[in-house]
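Inputs:
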Amino acid sequence: MAKHTVESCSKAKMAIRDTLDVVGGKWKLVLISVLRSGKKGFNELSREAGISPRILSKELQELEMNGLVIRKVCDTKPITVQYELTEYSHSLNDVLVAMEKWGYQHRKRIVQGIK
Amino acid sequence: MAKHTVESCSKAKMAIRDTLDVVGGKWKLVLISVLRSGKKGFNELSREAGISPRILSKELQELEMNGLVIRKVCDTKPITVQYELTEYSHSLNDVLVAMEKWGYQHRKRIVQGIK
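Outputs:
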């Protein structure tokens, strides 16, 4: 992002859009962040992330489709399903870390401004 | 994000949500990225970002409210309005850079996979 030429700007814009197409929206990065602590069942994930089952199901399907989450059927009685991050999902680390840091400082700034 | 304790995970989740509350959605980071090349008028911004005027107007208001963009009325004939990034918006640089990098590599990966 050092130089702002028409070409570099439109490449940057496209790349940011590409990222938002895959992990944009209200939930995907939150889900990935929650799954970083280890694989989880559907209900556990719904509770921890605070997402309704209907939306969670759709979000997980999209994350699976993009190779970021794997759905594992476990041979237990009754059969259970667990969701886990893929190796590829770790490529999002820098995005998650940057968003975490920004969120922390922004909340701090708002709280200080209110005082 | 080094350790995964219940507390650190829920702090991380909250921080990511806070960030998404401010710059989440389909357009805000794209708009910030477009404005990095300098201040722009409303129509110019609408064209460059590919956003309909109605949505652009709402997005710009929210960006202004969160101190990321300033709206400047210029004393020209006819009066013109320009939008510019604030100093504070630069705090999002790491988020933008990380998303750009991820977007580039993801597109490359997809293109290579298709070949």
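Remarks. The radius of gyration of chain A is 17 Å. Residues 93-114 of chain A form the longest helix (22 residues).
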